[in-house]
Every structure is written in structure tokens, then in C-alpha cells.
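Worked problem 6 (solution included).
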Amino acid sequence: MMKHGLVLAAPALLLCGCNKGVDMKNASASEVADKVKAATADGQFVSPGRWESTMTMIDMSMPGMPPEAAARMKGMMGKPRTFTSCLTEAEAKKPKEDFFAGGDGGNCRYDHFTMSGGVIDASMSCKEAGAMRTMTMKGTYSPDRYHMAVAATGNGGTGAGMSMKMEMDAKRTGACTGKEGG
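Solution. The predicted structure is:
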């Protein structure tokens, strides 16, 4: 579950192609989305179109994981996985709150979110069912590409002791073809 939420958070970078800076502390995903919208009101936003993203799992540890699952995870390490998506003009202009929280908008807050001059640095904490997850994102962005390093840890609940590191690279490759998603 944690891995899926983190992968969903990565599209936040697709929406960070602005020139004005955003610097927030102790902010909700909604507050961050509003600030990014305001910073990009002049139309300088990410380019809509077909995006090709590559995710590489660098490290993952989940104490208590069944041996078969642990072996599958180990087999994924260092092997890039590429997928495509289509970002419409409307999505490029109006980011939704869930892009900034990996789908957990109500349970997550940014400890800090800084986006300026082509650099992003963010740290988010999420609480649910007595467990705490922490995720950091650091990278670079432009309207047509980004690179992001993501790290996450879990404390309490079923994710106790979990840690993960991955890298995401994405670039706009042209107009949407209708065949994105794989």
C-alpha cells in the first residue's frame, strides 16, 4: 500500500513547472495545491501531452514480509519500470489536491514544501490507523521533464520499520496518442 501511495505522489512533479517559488511549512495538500495554482496563474505551467516516466526502486525493506514477497521485491531493485500517461490541458492548468498527497490528502501534511528555480524539496507526514509514514521528495523540474528522488519510512501499524528509496525520471514526449497508461 505504501509503495502505491508513493508512486501516486510522483505526478506532483508533473505539475510543478512554474517560475514563481512556493515555500510552505506545516501545510495540507490542499494548501500546497492552492499555492502552486497561484504561482502558475500566469500560464507558465507544465506542458500538457504524453509523458514517459521511469521509476527505479533503489532499496526496499519491510520487516516481517513473507519470504516470497521479499524475493519479488529484491528482484525489482535497480530495474527501471517505464510507463506513460497523458496530461490534458485542463489537468496541466488546475492540479488536484490528490496530486500533492498521493491520494491521502486528508491524512497527510507537508512538514515543508519548497519549489523554486527548477528545484523541489518536500517532506510529508501521513497518519492513519495509529501508523505514521514519512516521505521526502527532492529533485529538479522544468515544464518538459523532471527527476525526483523519493524516500519513505513507516512507523507503527502494519508498516512498522518499512523503508523505501526510489528515483523517478519523466519527460514529455509529444502529443497524447490515446495509448498511454502502460
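Discussion: The chain has a mean pLDDT of 78.
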